[in-house]
Amino acid sequence: MTLNPRVGMAVEGGKLYLAQTLHHYYRKYIHCSHHGPVDGRPGHHRTARKVHETGKVYRVWFCTSQPKGEGHRIDNTEYIELAIAHSDRALFDRILHEIIRQLRSRNCQPVARHHSPQPDDFDYHALLPYVDWQRVDKTVFKEILLD
After folding, report:
1. Residue 71, Ramachandran bin (φ over 0: left; ψ between -120 and 50: alpha; else beta)
2. Record's superkingdom (predicted)?
3. Mind listing the pLDDT tens digit for each residue in 85-104?
4. How far apart are the first and last CA of the chain?
């Protein structure tokens, strides 16, 4: 899957990539916390842009059981928390580890064609709170622990 850096959006760092990856592979299993599963459809779809009162633009997820212009929206943090609640933790941990590995690797940084990378697009630090340190193999995260 090609990951595209946000253009003109608020700083989201690795959370955007983690949410996009979870949505790409597991969207039918991540249900809306307000409305539950809807006929085998994904619980949320992402909107390309949402302008906040402060003028910053960010990506949000809207509930598929509601008309597109109505209903509630959630941000990347809430979408990731839904994914944790609705998925197998071991599977989530593997995805999280891979996203962190990609964001840390200079050979594997996600950049869209014809766009220069933005430094915060590769920031994995926002993902560290999701690491279950009691379950993870600390040798895998040795470099991160040394940061």
Report:
1. left
2. Eukaryota
3. 888 888 888 888 888 888 77
4. 28
